[in-house]
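Support reply, case 0932

Customer input (verbatim):
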Amino acid sequence: MTQSYDAMWEKLNLDIDAHAGLLEVLGKFYGDIYLSQEGRLKGMEYLDFVLSEVHGLRIKELQDAKAEGKKVIGTFCVFVPEEIVLAAGAIQLGLCAGAEAGKESAEKILPRNTCALVKSFVGFKLLRLCPYIESCDLVVGETTCDGKKKAYEIFAECLLT
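Our regenerated output:
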């Protein structure tokens, strides 16, 4: 990243040390798989920049929009129509999950046989690793599966009280 975002991440209540570890792993992963490719197109440099700033500049853009009074609405599925969010003058943010980080923490409040996606997003929240979920004013709890429905119920009881 081109600048330090620690103050912004601290304001979001991220675990700074754990987040730094996550960024290190993600950066190495991206570098090993993509940046090491021979004959890589020069036009990919823009994507490389965007991904190098994915937890920095993009989060700053969201925080700036929030300072201007916009709301950030996080979603996991395409079942939340973006048109509704835009009509409300908000920013829709596609949340991700799938990393193993936080699995053990999530299993303390979720059944062990819950899918990896659900355990991942709950674990990210519990460990304060994801600046995207921490930037959200609202996370839409769509009920596309029983695991998500149960996670959102537990999320409301354990994490938001």
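We compared this against your earlier run and they match. Two observations from our side: The first strand starts at residue 72 and ends at 75. The chain has a mean pLDDT of 87. Please reopen the case if you see a mismatch on your end.
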